[in-house]
Amino acid sequence: MQSRVLAILIAVVLALVATAAMVVYVNGADRRAIAGQQPVNVLVATQDIPLGMSGEDAQTRHMINSVPMPRSAALKGRVLSQNQLRNRYAAVEIVAGEQLLLERWVGAEDVGGRRLLQIPEGSQAVSVGVDIVRQVAGFVTPGDHVNLVVTMPLNGADKTQYVLRNVQVLAVGATALTRSSAGANGGRVNQGKGSQTLTAVTLAVENRFVKKVVHASEKGSIYLTLLPPNPDTGPPGGAVGDGDIFQE
């Protein structure tokens, strides 16, 4: 009789232990499931990002967005913040909707083909040296559009004239639409005009205007004006000189 009671008690205890273990397991699974569903912000491409494009440029063009998703769906090795993309370039084409993985973004020296400037078809990249005042106090940045104005001697007198209008800026110093890290001088160059420090501003110039821009840079003084979105691209008008300033 006692052995039967003992066996029953043992069975009851084992059942309680099994039930408790099941409850602990289920609660743990629930916690794991809830943790897996806790949203985290993940950086994804909102549109296709081409090979060689810089992280900064992709951000400026709103090609990257932070979206919440379950923690369990976030990939290991993902880009955790947009600061991680500084001075990095897409090593492969990144398709829209893809989570950004750090291993897909490399330094400038690792970009295939080293084609770091996004030069439009039918154009060439041409750099001109301008001081900070003549590039709108430094507000000219890669991706902007500018007018290029030159002052140089003409028929015995200095004249000022538009050379080109609505030209895309590809780079300022060593900071480009596909940015690379600048040296200790911050990308500034000395072009030998007195002691003034100049910045190399690289423009996308149509093939037919390249010689004109180079000549203006060699013989004249370049001034850049910054354009708003959708600027008026009408005729630039004639040259002006000293006698035109005080005309009524």
Summarize the entry for a quick read:
By secondary structure, this protein is α+β, with helices and mostly antiparallel strands. 23% of the residues lie in helices and 29% in strands. The protein contains four helices and eleven strands; from the N terminus they run αβαβββββββββαβα.
How do the strands and helices of this protein lay out in sequence?
Blueprint: H1 2-37, E1 39-45, H2 55-60, E2 64-70, E3 89-90, E4 105-106, E5 123-130, E6 145-154, E7 157-172, E8 175-176, E9 188-189, E10 198-206, H3 210-219, E11 221-226, H4 242-245
Antiparallel strand pairs: 1-2, 3-4, 5-10, 6-7, 6-11, 7-8, 7-10, 9-10
Structure notes:
There is one protein chain. The protein is 23% helix and 29% strand. It has four helices and eleven strands, in the order αβαβββββββββαβα. The chain is of the alpha+beta class. Residues 178-195 have low confidence and may be disordered. The chain is rod-shaped. It has two domains: 39-114, Type Iii Antifreeze Protein Isoform Hplc 12, CATH 3.90.1210.10; 123-232, no CATH class.
